Amino acid sequence: MAVHRVLVVDDDDDLLEFLEVGFSGHGFLVTCAQSVVKAQQLLASETYDLVLTDVNMKGATGIELCQWMSEHHPETPVVIMTAFASIDSAVSALRSGAQDYIQKPLHIDTTITRIHRVIESTRLQAEVKRLSQVLDESRSFAELIGASSEMQRVFGVLERVSDTHASVLVTGERGAGKELVARSIHERSGRKGGPFIAVNTSAIPENLFERELFGQVATRDAPEHDGLLRQANEGTLFLDELGELPLPIQPKLLRALEDRSVRPVGGNQDYPINIRLVTSTNIDLESAVADGNFRQDLFYRINVVHVRLPPLRSRGKDILLLAQHFLERAARESGKAVSGLQPNVAERLLGYNWPGNVRELRNCIEHAVALTRYDKLGIEDLPARIRQYKPSHVVVASEDPRELLPMHEVERRYITRVLEAVKGNKSLAAKILGFDRKTLYRKLDRYAKMDAASG
Questions:
Q1: pLDDT digit string (tens) for 147-197?
Q2: Based on the domain organization, do 336 and 445 belong to the same domain?
Q3: The three-state (H, E, C) secondary structure of 260-284, written as one string
Q4: How far apart are the first and last CA of the chain?
Q5: Cα distance between residue 139 and residue 152, in whole Å
Q6: Which of 264, 337, 410, 454 is in Cβ range 3.0-4.6 Å of 215 for a Cys bridge?
Q7: What is the four-CA torsion angle of 321, 323, 327, 330, rounded to 10 degrees?
Q8: Domain count along the chain
């Protein structure tokens, strides 16, 4: 248990003794001061996690101490306690910089809970501020945000490759930010003045692939269509979910890339193209090559530089940094005075598995900002799937029937745990689980639909 240093300021000796005894068994190291002057002397030489002060004392008041703390020790939270409960005194305390307001007579368990909450909230705010400073001092790429070592490695690769002509393959789970990577590469390249064309390959009907990629000459029934390769000329073409590209189209795309020219469907003239190709996938293309579902020569052509985007669950406190970023943007757009997260919300966000990655986190925070009635997001503001989330550990040895799980939930949690252990490598996870990849993908899709339905 972490030990929190608390300075208690009151001119009532009995109350000081009561709090010192009551706090001692709950992770607090208590120092007592009988006046504001004595408290200021202690604060000049010692550091505390929180100051708990009475309002009405002989000499300077707790309100005056709170104001002094705001000026001299703004990083240390103050909680006010008073026997003279009124709206006016509460407002005065909060306006003077107090983090919370407790009415006497004090109930020790309630007081401890409130103080823990304030300390954790302050720690969280300090952590978000620290992460923001780390982010400001480190590499950043447009909307890509991250102070974790995983994201700093990604930024290092992007920094070196962006202003080259090399084709880039971005891999990662759905929602991890692959299109943001592609846009960042474009914006940092010499092609930033040209077009950035992004297309989700899986959204194109198979019978329209050739027309959409290579274009089509004018016919009696339809006007000329340039196609994506020509539309991206002198710029960047981003093909998302490239693993969905039909086999018959793959050699034609390879030829266009090698020859740097494209011939529209129904035409007899080649048009030169000068594009930077960035592709992405959330499947294992090397396994797809081995299975005969993706051409090896095209794989080598697109995989000149490989950027592996980590899943959100492996990025640690980047989750809080991103949550604060999305919160500030959503609050600004909605005109709501929401400034942060309650500590239990931060713990829930850090403990959740984020199968939908950054996209799911953004949706979660926008949902919470839209619903909240307070200046900090609470547990009740979160979507149901996150409020009700349980860790992926599997309970099998419990004697309590209430802790035992149905088989489908045991399987789900074990699959999730294996994926965490192999850092999202689905091919390796499938081997460990004894599934083929299609079975694993089918189960993951079913879990995602269940999560969406519960949210």
A1: 888 998 999 999 999 999 999 999 998 899 999 999 999 999 999 999 999
A2: no
A3: CEECCECCCCCEECCCEEEEEECCC
A4: 34
A5: 7
A6: 264
A7: 120
A8: 4
d(C-alpha 303, C-alpha 162), whole Å = 15
Q: Does one domain contain both 83 and 222?
A: no
Instruction: Specify whether the CB–CB gap between 338 and 365 falls below 8 A.
Output: no
The tens digit of pLDDT for each residue in 276-288 reads 999 999 888 988 9
Q: Which residue has the higher pLDDT, 403 or 240?
A: 240
Residue 139 domain-assigned? no
* pLDDT 10s digits, 7-49: 999 999 999 999 998 898 788 999 999 999 999 999 999 999 9
Q: State whether 172 and 299 are in the same domain.
A: yes
What tens digit of pLDDT does each residue of 107-116 get?
898 899 889 8
Q: Are 433 and 361 in the same domain?
A: no
Rg of the Cα atoms in the chain:
29
404 and 315, same domain (yes or no): no
The three-state DSSP-derived secondary structure of 280-298 is EECCCHHHHHHCCCCCHHH
The enclosing domain of 440 has a CATH number of 1.10.10.60
Q: Is 193 exposed, middle or buried (0-12, 13-18, 19+ CB in 10 A)?
A: exposed
Contact 404, 395 (CB under 8 A): yes
Q: What angle do CA 194, 197, 201 make, to 5 degrees?
A: 160
Residue 143 lies in a domain: no
The residue range of the domain holding 422 is 393-455
pTM score: 0.72
> Do 167 and 304 touch, CB atoms closer than 8 A?
yes
Shared-domain flag, residues 361 and 417: no
Residue 296 sits in the same domain as residue 334? no
DSSP string, 318-330: HHHHHHHHHHHHH
β-pair type (236-240, 50-54): unpaired
